[in-house]
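Structure in, sequence out. Go:
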């Protein structure tokens, strides 16, 4: 009993370490979001709605490089451990923000984004870290902590960014670089390794290519269908993630400070769902119904955004949208719960590849859709077009999830039997 208590305490401390690391990481990105639209507009000498298309290209540039390198990073973390990979990721983001801070032209923004994409594996490796230290009973709750870090980071980061705008458009980027460097220092001196030597596996190049990583999803029954659900969720979310700052600045004339406040509200709601609500709702609904309910709430929020006519409506409509966050940890728990412990890094690398695909093509579609429907080229003026499309994709995701999970018990083997079978063949390096 005493040994069990020590192990439980160690796991809890490890989750706390990774939570702080991811929190600081998200804060860095949250700081720069309120000022990025105006920076692009000033560098390109265009309007905010036109800047949306160029902002989408920046997101895609980051995603393309991450798509190529995320499986490599995931496999490296399975071979050499999570800690060194995570530290390299944090240092890469620091360099990225420095490029953004001193970029003399729009093209240099691409350089910074590519560097971040090459090393940007903080959430990939963080998710594998969480899987390492979680039990089947605590897995969904611990994955909820990733969402909580994201939410709290978006409470603090955008508020800081909104206040720093008064010091100039470049000030938030310098602050983000400093924050990432402090995060690197924290990880170097405090963050322990989560993957013991006996659970590591040999590095395989065939598993480190992005398309090979996607094939990994086919190796376990029904994972492929759930991965499609995962893909649709993140693709639909690009309607909000890619356009929020541009939409609110252009349609409601929000300042960088107001955008920062709105993102902080989003962060507060997300954190409340992930830290508080999910602990109550998930045991009551279970994984499957949490997924269905969350996806329908996401859809409702997106449809409401599409037809918002005043700024205050966006705050109200954030409630159902953010409540949809109960779906993510439940889906993540279902996916990771059917993959052996020594393949969690590979799984997270594959899922990150899926996310990167949505981030490659999502902003190109959603941001250009917004620009198109806010210019004279469109047959009619409809700035809510990307949100409407996002809502339809969320409904499609709910349907895909239902089709794949309705016979879950017949498809999946018992998790304990799967782990036991795999553990007998874990190579020691």
């Amino acid at each position: 009993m005493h040994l069990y208590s020590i192990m439980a305490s160690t796991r809890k401390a490890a989750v706390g370490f990774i939570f702080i690391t991811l929190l600081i990481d998200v804060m860095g990105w949250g700081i720069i979001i309120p000022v990025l639209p105006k920076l692009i507009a000033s560098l390109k000498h265009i309007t905010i709605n036109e800047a949306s298309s160029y902002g989408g290209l920046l997101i895609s540039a980051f995603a393309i490089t991450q798509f190529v390198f995320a499986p490599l990073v995931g496999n490296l973390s399975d071979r050499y451990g999570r800690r060194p990979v995570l530290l390299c990721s944090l240092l890469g983001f620091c360099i990225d923000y420095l490029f953004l801070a001193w970029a003399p032209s729009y093209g240099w923004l691409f350089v910074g984004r590519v560097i971040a994409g090459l090393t940007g594996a903080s959430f990939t490796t963080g998710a594998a870290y969480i899987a390492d230290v979680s039990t089947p009973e605590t897995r969904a709750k611990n994955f909820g902590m990733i969402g909580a870090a994201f939410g709290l980071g978006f409470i603090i980061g955008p508020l800081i960014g909104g206040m720093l705008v008064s010091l100039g458009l470049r000030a938030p980027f310098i602050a983000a670089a400093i924050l990432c460097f402090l995060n690197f220092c924290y990880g170097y001196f405090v963050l322990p390794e989560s993957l013991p030597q006996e659970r590591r596996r040999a590095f395989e190049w065939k598993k480190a290519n992005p398309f090979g990583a996607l094939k990994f999803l086919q190796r376990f029954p029904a994972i492929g269908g759930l991965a499609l659900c995962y893909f649709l969720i993140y693709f639909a979310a690009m309607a909000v993630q890619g356009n929020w700052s541009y939409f609110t600045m252009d349609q409601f004339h929000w300042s960088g400070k107001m955008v920062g406040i709105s993102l902080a509200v989003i962060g507060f709601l997300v954190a409340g769902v992930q830290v508080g609500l999910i602990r109550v709702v998930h045991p009551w609904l279970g994984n499957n119904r949490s997924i269905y309910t969350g996806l329908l709430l996401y859809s409702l929020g997106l449809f409401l955004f599409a037809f918002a006519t005043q700024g205050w409506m966006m705050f109200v409509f954030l409630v159902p949208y953010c409540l949809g966050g109960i779906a993510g940890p439940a889906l993540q728990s279902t996916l990771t719960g059917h993959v052996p412990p020594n393949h969690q890094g590979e799984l997270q690398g594959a899922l990150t590849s899926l996310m990167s695909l949505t981030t490659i093509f999502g902003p190109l579609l959603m941001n250009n859709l917004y620009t198109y429907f806010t210019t004279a080229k469109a047959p009619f003026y409809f700035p809510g077009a990307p949100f409407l499309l996002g809502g339809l994709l969320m409904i499609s995701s709910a349907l895909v999830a239902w089709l794949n999970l309705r016979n879950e018990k017949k498809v999946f083997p018992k998790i304990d039997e799967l782990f036991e079978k795999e553990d007998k063949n874990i190579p020691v390096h």
